[in-house]
Amino acid sequence: MRHNIFTVLEILIKRNFLHLCLKNLETANSFSLEEAQQLDQALQLDSSSFKGVLFYSEGSRYFCSGGNLKKYAYMQKEEGLRVNDQIACVLEKLSQYPYPTCCVIEGDCYGGGMELISAFDYRISAPHSFLGFWQRKVGLSFGWGGEQRWKRLIPEGLLSRLYLEASHVSAYEAADLGLVDEVCSTSLLFQRAYSWLERASSYFLDPLRDFKKQPKDEKSLFEKLWLGKAHRKALSPYKKQDN
User: Fold this and answer.
1) Secondary structure E strands in 36-75
2) What is the pLDDT of residues 90-118, one digit of tens each?
C-alpha cells in the first residue's frame, strides 16, 4: 500500500513493514522541517498493518547531507530555533517509536544526518558510504537530540573526539566505532534489513515501548550557537548563490 500525500518522503507498506524513502536529491537528501513533518505524519499512520519501520534514501551518493543550509540562511534566529525544536521533537518520537526501526545508509551521511540515524534502533551501511559529525563546520553543536542519543550508543569520549575533529570515516571505520551496526554489499542491504526487522519484531512490543522512553536535554548550547558568528559565516555563501 502506497500513501500519496507525501512529497519528500515516499511512504509505502510492504512485507509488513512501513517503508520511508527520503527523496530530495536536489539538496543531496538534506533534512529540513518539511521532511520532519512528513516523517511525523508517517509515524502517526495506523500501525495495525505493519510491525516495524525501514528508512532509506533515494540514490546512492548521499543518504543525508544534514540540514538544509539554504533554507536556514534566510531564517531569523527565533524562527531557526523553532524549526530545529520541531525537527528534534520528531526525531525524539522516532527514537521512542514502539516498533523496531532500521535505516539503510546507502551514501554519505553528515551533520544532521548523523542525528537522524541516531534515532533508529539499527543502522546498516553500504561499503561506499562515509559518515561524519560535521556540525562544527557550520558553526554549530548538536541540535536535533543526537548528542544524547549518541552518548547512549558510543563512549562519550569518542563522541567528543569525532565532534571536535569534524572529519568523516568510512563505513567500515564507522562499524568499528559503533556508529553503524553492520556493513554489507549494496545488493544485500535490504535483505539484511528485513532479516533484522523480522527478528526484532518477533518479540513482545510492550517492553520495547518502555525501554525507548528516556529523558534528554541538550538545547541550550545549540540555541546559543544558532546564528552566532561561526554559524552566520557558514550560511553566508548560501545567500550569495541567489544574488
Assistant:
1) 53-57, 62-64
2) 999 999 999 999 999 999 999 999 999 99
User: Letter for the amino acid at 12?
Assistant: L
217 grid coordinates = 536535554
And the C-alpha cell for 237?
Answer: 555563501
User: Beta 182-183 vs 130-132: how paired, if at all?
Assistant: unpaired
Per domain, the residue ranges of the chain are 2-200
pLDDT of residue 223: 84
For residue 1, pLDDT beyond 70 = no
Under DSSP, is residue 54 helix (H, G, I), strand (E, B) or coil? strand
CATH homologous superfamily of 2-200 equals 2-enoyl-CoA Hydratase; Chain A, domain 1 (3.90.226.10)
C-alpha cell at 176: 568499528
Give φ, ψ of 226 to 5 degrees.
-60, 125
Task: Report which residue type is found at 223.
Answer: E
CB 212 within 8 A of CB 98: yes
Q: What is the pLDDT of residues 29-65, one digit of tens each?
A: 999 999 999 999 999 999 888 999 999 999 999 999 9
List 181's β-bridge partners, or say none: none
- The β-bridge relationship of strands 2-3 and 9-14 is antiparallel
Pull the grid cell for residue 104. 539503510
Q: Where are the beta strands (DSSP E) in 59-194?
A: 62-64, 101-105, 108-110, 122-125, 130-132, 168-170, 182-183
Question: Measured between alpha carbons, how far is 88 from 83 in angstroms, rounded to an integer?
Answer: 9
